[in-house]
């Protein structure tokens, strides 16, 4: 657990710096188990900041969305830094974005928090439906201690932990300016959900499995909007000349969309689970992402976002790169 007082104290110091524009963190949401991103432009606002196992959102998505308005004549650009709170996977996303030159390292103040895993909102809501008042949660001795309307529930961690956290390769932030709290002991990453079982299926069975899921896709693009690595100025799915993917919602176009997105994230996805969590029709997107992550590791011995000085996977060439998949 992060010392809440220390978090607020340290973030206040950062927001007070002249060269910092604002700091992005977490605050209580408006109901139940909801958590909202918080943007602190002043030290007073930082009193709202919290960090607990419900703080799942990958905040690395926000600095990249910073709007750069056209400057008026004689006006100077605001070049102050943006502060952002990151867990392990979020820090990997920042690393990846910096490697790809989507963001400059010197424009960020990175506040790292070692992570012991986060709660899956869908799991906790199905266990405690209709909770409307804000709920305090802390992790203690392998349990989540949840206080609802004055009653305390101790729920074993594995019942609520987000599935993607069991295969986490870096719970401690891999890049930061300041670390709040002590590093945690990393755990042995597990195979994600039913990937092993899925890999034992025939091609036809795999195709049928994904068709069943893709036909439910409503093309809301929530997965794209929540993903810190989906930051192209113009997404291929929105292009009209040429039109790569039709906008019609049907199995063929939905499949093209989901496969295109998954492959665009190959060697870039950091496994933060945001895409799957926001999908309104529960498509198991992390199974696709994790399979590609495993393939990239096996073929190129590469894990996305681990080292800010490394080149992106598809921006480099090694003479011994496998090439048997090239036709
Ligand atoms: S994937 Fe790792 S760093 Fe990210 S929330 Fe889960 S345990 Fe924390
Ligand atoms: S969030 Fe789900 S339903 Fe929406 S576009 Fe992505 S995969 Fe399709
Ligand atoms: S594809 Fe999903 S898991 Fe991967 S970085 Fe984007 S949001 Fe995170």
Characterize this entry briefly.
This protein is an alpha/beta fold and 327 residues long. The chain has helices at 4-16, 61-65, 88-99, 121-127, 157-160, 195-199, 203-214, 222-226, 251-264, 274-278, 285-300, and strands at 20-28, 35-40, 49-50, 81-86, 108-112, 136-140, 143-148, 151-156, 178-179.
| Number of β-strand runs | 9
Beta-strand fraction estimate: 5-15%
Give Rg in angstroms.
21 Å
Q: Unreliable stretches, pLDDT < 50, 5 or more residues?
A: none
Order of helices and strands: HEEEHEHEHEEEHEHHHHHH
Bound chemical compounds: iron/sulfur cluster
Helix content: 25-40%
Distance between the termini: 51 Å
Give the SSE map.
Layout: H1 4-16, E1 20-28, E2 35-40, E3 49-50, H2 61-65, E4 81-86, H3 88-99, E5 108-112, H4 121-127, E6 136-140, E7 143-148, E8 151-156, H5 157-160, E9 178-179, H6 195-199, H7 203-214, H8 222-226, H9 251-264, H10 274-278, H11 285-300
Parallel strand pairs: 1-4, 4-5, 5-9
Antiparallel strand pairs: 1-2, 1-3, 6-7, 7-8
Bound molecules: iron/sulfur cluster (3 copies).
Structure description:
The protein has 327 residues and is an alpha/beta fold. 30% of the residues lie in helices and 14% in strands. It has 11 helices and 9 strands. The strands form 2 sheets. Strands 1, 2, 3, 4, 5 and 9 form a 6-stranded mixed β-sheet that branches. The chain has a 3-stranded antiparallel β-sheet with strand order 6-7-8.
Key features of this structure:
binds iron/sulfur cluster; about 30% helix; 11 helices; six-stranded mixed β-sheet; about 325 residues; alpha/beta
């Amino acid at each position: 657990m992060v010392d809440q007082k220390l978090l607020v104290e340290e973030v206040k110091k950062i927001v007070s710096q002249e060269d910092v524009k604002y700091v992005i963190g977490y605050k209580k949401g408006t109901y139940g188990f909801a958590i909202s991103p918080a943007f602190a432009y002043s030290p007073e606002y930082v009193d709202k900041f919290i960090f607990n196992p419900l703080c799942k959102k990958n905040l690395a998505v926000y600095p990249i969305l910073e709007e750069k308005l056209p400057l008026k004549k004689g006006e100077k650009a605001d070049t102050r830094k943006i502060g952002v709170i990151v867990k392990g996977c979020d820090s990997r996303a920042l690393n990846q974005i910096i490697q790809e030159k989507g963001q400059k390292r010197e424009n960020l103040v990175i506040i790292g928090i070692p992570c012991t895993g986060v709660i899956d909102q869908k799991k906790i809501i199905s266990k405690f439906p209709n909770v409307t008042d804000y709920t305090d949660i802390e992790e203690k001795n392998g349990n989540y201690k949840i206080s609802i309307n004055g009653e305390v529930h101790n729920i074993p961690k594995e019942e609520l932990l987000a599935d993607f956290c069991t295969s986490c390769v870096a719970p401690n932030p891999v890049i930061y300016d300041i670390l709040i709290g002590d590093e945690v002991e990393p755990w042995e990453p597990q195979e994600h959900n039913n990937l092993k079982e899925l890999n034992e299926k025939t091609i036809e069975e795999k195709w049928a499995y994904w068709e069943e899921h893709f036909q439910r896709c409503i093309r809301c693009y929530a997965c794209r909007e929540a993903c810190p690595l989906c930051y192209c100025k113009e997404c291929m799915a929105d292009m009209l000349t040429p039109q790569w993917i039709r906008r019609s919602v049907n199995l063929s176009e939905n499949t093209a969309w989901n496969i295109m997105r998954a492959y665009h994230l190959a060697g870039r996805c950091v496994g933060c689970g945001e895409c799957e969590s926001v999908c309104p029709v529960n498509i198991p997107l992390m199974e696709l992402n994790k399979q590609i992550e495993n393939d990239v590791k096996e073929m190129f011995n590469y894990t996305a976002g681990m080292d800010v000085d490394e080149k992106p996977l598809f921006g480099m060439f090694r003479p011994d790169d496998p090439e048997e998949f090239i036709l």
